[in-house]
Amino acid sequence: MEALRERKQRGERITALTAYDYPTARLLDEAGVDVVLVGDSLGMVVLGYQDTTEVTLQEMVHHTRAAARGLQRALLVADLPIHTYDTPAEAVANARQLVAAGAQAVKLEGGASHAAQIEAVVNAGIPVMAHIGMLPQSVREEGGYKLKGRTPAEAEILLRDAAAVEAAGAFAVVLEIVAAETARQITAAIDIPTIGIGSGEQCDGQILVTHDLIGLFPWFAPKFVRREADVAAEMRKAFEAFISRTRGLGVRGAEAKPRAV
Ligand code: KIV
Questions:
Q1: Dist. CA 164 → ligand 1 center (Å)
Q2: Across residues 94-100, what is the average pLDDT?
Q3: Which of 95, 122, 192, 201 would disulfide-bridge 169, Cβ 3.0–4.6 Å?
Q4: Is 133 inside any structural domain?
Q5: Does residue 57 surpass a pLDDT of 60?
Q6: Phi–psi pair at 113, nearest 5 degrees
Q7: What CATH number does the domain containing 53 carry?
Q8: What number does the ligand 1 atom closest to the CA of 174 have?
Q9: pLDDT recorded at residue 48
Q10: b/e for 132-162, b at 16 or more Cβ within 10 A?
Q11: Which domain holds residue 166?
Q12: pLDDT digits over 118-148, tens only?
């Protein structure tokens, strides 16, 4: 965790991507990513839920175990899903389950409103990554994935949230869909690294959902993502090639029929 703070001090960017399984985690680790997040985005891109609000702790534990097996070097952070950290005591008990599954740190959504939970988990010896700005676990109340920190009043709230999570002991904070200028101000105002997603280029690091980066979830991609591959198209090509090669073998048994003499 200290290494990430030192990276911020040196101005070196921090890289973070999601993984929910062994091969993806291992490929990310081998590629040299700094942080692997078992995000509750797994609800959408792996489990087929509408949003992250249906993800359970058991699902997070299961996928954290798988991702942990693939890592040798990168820091493994796992999300506490919705309603698993409503109180500080619940946050600590559930964070311990993610750590037992292989996570080295946990992430939870919320700023000043969740400082007590962050403090309790940190005091229990578990590092916490905070998450402010657009909070996907509140998407239903919010009515969508909307830009945050656009007005001076909104920016002020986010600056206070960032200061609160830092004071509570978080080692880093995700800024999700925050206006770029506000993200820049937050990054300058706190000593812990900011990891942006859809929040401009002035954060200390960047995180994306891997499926969005590699085009593995072709039915939806946030506008701010610059896709680096079209894995879904490659998969479709391979599936079609297999189907056509197998069907091209012809009717089974036809070639083996004994000839009439
Ligand atoms: O769940 C997730 O994947 C996340 C990141 C996108 C920040 O919270």
A1: 20
A2: 98
A3: 122
A4: yes
A5: yes
A6: -60, -25
A7: 3.20.20.60
A8: 7
A9: 98
A10: bbbbbbebeeeeebebbbeeeebbebbbebb
A11: 2-229
A12: 999 999 999 999 999 999 999 999 999 999 9
